[in-house]
Amino acid sequence: xxxxxxLNEIAAGEIESLLDSAFGADRHNRTAYRIRLGVSxxxxxxxxxxxxxxxxxxxQCWPVALVLDDGDSVxxxxxxxVAVRPDRQRxxxxxxxMTHMLGHAEATGDARALMLIGDPEYYGRLFGFTADQTALWxxxxxxxxxxxxxxxxxxxxAAGMLGPGVTVAx
Length: 170
Prior knowledge:
Blueprint: E1 2-6, H1 12-23, H2 31-35, E2 47-51, E3 54-68, E4 73-84, H3 93-108, E5 114-117, H4 120-127, E6 137-138, E7 148-151, E8 160-164
Parallel strand pairs: 4-5, 6-8
Antiparallel strand pairs: 1-2, 2-3, 3-4, 3-8, 5-7
């Protein structure tokens, strides 16, 4: 049985080990890491999947912003990584983590502007993320534009650069 708990209850070393096993030790070079550089994950939207006392999955969400070409800044929540231990992938743990996080995002109002970099077929079909409003967005590193996805009624369809947002103290 999978239990979902707040990610901040898990030791940082365990989380890093899970991320390394799911994505490789070179994951820090990815564009997603550049977008959220220098900010901490959002505890209210980040969760761990625990089974028999073992960490088998995790989802992190981050405060980021789209700095529009006109100078304005739009706060967004960046979803991901969604990490599942390699021997447990395809068991529905990632979907369970996403569904749980989206429920919390809806309850807190954070679902108004969510974004991620991911497979549009998967995240679109299951969770309503699309590239409809992100065509003019830029990132601080390479990204396939079709994989830059968003959902929510406060997602701007304007030109701008993604980058770290401000972490608000709870």
